[in-house]
Task: structure prediction
Amino acid sequence: MSECRKLESLLPTFVDGEAPPETRAAVQGHLDACPVCRQTVAEQVACRTLVQSRTAALATPAPPGLRTRIVATARDERARAAVPALGWRGRLAAFSAAAVLVLAVAAGSLSVLTSYSNVLFAAQLALDHLKCFVIDGHVHLPGMTTDEAERQLSDLYGWDLEVPEGSAEDDLRVVAVRRCLYGDGRAAHVLYRHQGQPVSLFMLPDMTRTPDEVAAFGQASRMWSRDNITYVLVMPSGNPAALTDVARHMGNEAQ
Result:
């Protein structure tokens, strides 16, 4: 089981075909001897195949009413912000059954529109946040240091980025790093846990966005830009104070 834990963070890149040869060899060697991890990989491959097949089918201009529906959804989320929300476990359980379908339908449609709207941009990153935590299971990972996270971003993806530190005092820690798709390309995705809740920080070099706060798919997103890097913080909606505190911490650490 300890070996499974060590390799768990490598499985998504293995499934996506982005792991370097030595990593692929190590993971494959483990899979040959571990039926539990082999089943996990098979499930992730099935999800990825489904998402890819639907995305290809929907690689056409988005329906005229899509933007209106998403903007209306975001408006409704803001209106419900004062209503007590489910805990993150309840939210993830509710999303787990629908996540693949939502990703399959929305990913291709949103991708043609993210350049123009912070709402749609945040919506797609919220989907990636849910995919990594719900489908890929990163919520269960034990965590890593920021040095390890920065090294993985560099070694696996070629990004020289400074990962904001966690905070032992606030129970905020780095869980994993990924490279996720969005409408205009790929984003560095740093996954955290904050007091047991899943938190994502997306870092997008060579991009500047207007500071904004958006709610979509039950997630609250705070975005800002500094030094030609756009940062997007995503975490479950329903606790504005926590969003503000974590965003302030991330912003200070990213300076």
